[in-house]
Write a structure and sequence with these properties.
globular; seven-stranded mixed sheet; single chain
Amino acid sequence: MPTFLSLPLKDKMIVAGNWIYKRTHRKIVDLAGLFTKVPASGRKIPNQVFLTWKDTRFFPLHALQLKRFRNLNKDYSFEFYDDKRMNDYMEANFAGHPILEVFHYITVMSAKVDVWRYCILYKEGGVYCDIDSSLTLPLRTMLKDDPEEMLSYEGNAWRDNLVIGKYADPAVFQPAPSPEVEKLLDLPDNQFLTWFLCFAPGHPILKEYIDLLVAHFPFFKDRVFDLILPGSSHATGPVALTQAVWKTLEKTKKRPAQFGVDFKGYGQYKVYGSEDRLEGSGGYFHLGNMTLGGRRE
């Protein structure tokens, strides 16, 4: 990990500037006014961005990054979902669907949000962004060719993360993509990222993901994972999405739109100041010996 002194001058100035901003701006910022609607564009991927968190209040430096992302995409509606609105959406739109049982079972919040993000994109289409992530390239630029999806990769190799048997049902998960699928992928050795998603409504990859979760639910329901991070990654996270992409391409034989690793460097997995939102609350990913339903052993 680079030290401050080893950074290029430009990066030093950015880090120093954010450090000063963080220590001179203390007042919590309510960003409710950020979430506004604009007319629909009529494009395949609707011009709407979905974000979720407990409420619309953020620490100042984090709020600044969210404002920058919003200002970069003024031609997009921004929709905010707190826990209640997310739950209400699932109840209203997936009543009677087995994915609703999966959603209600999961209490590990990051995994619960995983389920919701694919479901709302399947129904509505648009863009999902983690509340602590961003994209420095305008969406209109990245999606200028009007694709039905835009996939991006992690720097991680799927071989380093896929553990069938321990974390995934071998009857449901594939051990590797087929040679035919590999030819359709720019980076067939890499895992797909999930913190920023762009899809048209009703997209087959989203349907495949939802079907995969339902099929895999008997395996991970009430299963005690030694580590919750790989358990959730296989159940609802990047490993699950990667599997869904492979399975979809097996059927469609269609090359999806792809945009490199971390959206060719324009993607920001963790924006400056976003770490403050977890102060005092910790997280789940360091935990072990528990189920995705929250039961501890």
